[in-house]
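Running this now, will post back.
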Amino acid sequence: MSVQKYLLNLNRLGSYKTLRFIRAELRQNKQAITGIALAQGLGKYSELGDEYIKHITGMITANNLEADDLHPIFLPQP
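Update: finished.
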């Protein structure tokens, strides 16, 4: 149930508004929805702001998590 609540938070709370906008733009432009791209919308999630974004994108890169972005659910749909 906690995952379901987290997903609801992503789609409802104001601190994730930029993330939702980025996701919508990527979908509209038929671009892949990636963790690096979505992380850019997390500035208001943490009081660290841009430093938080740098931390998250650094973790994604350091752990080679970009490979997970190649899963078909994250790629543009025809």
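Helices lie at 2-12, 17-28, 35-39, 50-62. More later if anyone needs it.
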